[in-house]
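Deliverable D5.2: sample structural annotation.
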Amino acid sequence: MADHQEAHVTLPSEPVSVAAARRYVDRVLTEWGLAVGTEFADSIRLIVSELATNAVQHTFGQSPTFTVELRLEREENLHLGVRDSHPRRPRRLPAAVQQDNGRGMVIIRSLAKECGGRLTVTPTADGGKTVWIELPWSIPVQN
C-alpha cells in the first residue's frame, strides 16, 4: 500500500448534502476496510454529520459549497476534514442559546476523544477553514 490514501467530495451547502456527505464517507471507509455498524464507524458517521451540518447552517450563505476530505496515513491515522469558505471558526454557543442547538462541537470533541483522537481547525488560502478530526486507525486497509 502507498503511504497514504485520499478522497474528497465537494457538495453544495444545502441540508440534503449532510446525508450525501455521510454516505460518501461510509462508502470510502468501507472501501478502506472499515466494517459498517461498528462503534468506530458509527462515531465517524456522527462526526461527519455534525461537521457537515455546521458547514451548512453556520456559514450564513457565505460558503456556497463545503468539501469533505479523507486522508489515511500509513494505516495509522485517519484525518477527516470539512472545509468551507466562511472565515469564522467554530465555537460553543452560550448556554442560553444551546437549548435547541450549539452542542455540535461538544459532541464532535467528545467522540474524537473517546476514539483516541483530536480536533483541530486550520485556515485555508481562501480565508475559510477546515475542521479536522484525527483518529487512530487500526483496521487493515483493503486494496
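Annotation notes: The longest strand covers residues 4-12. The mean pLDDT is 88.
The annotation will be released with the project's public dataset once the embargo ends.
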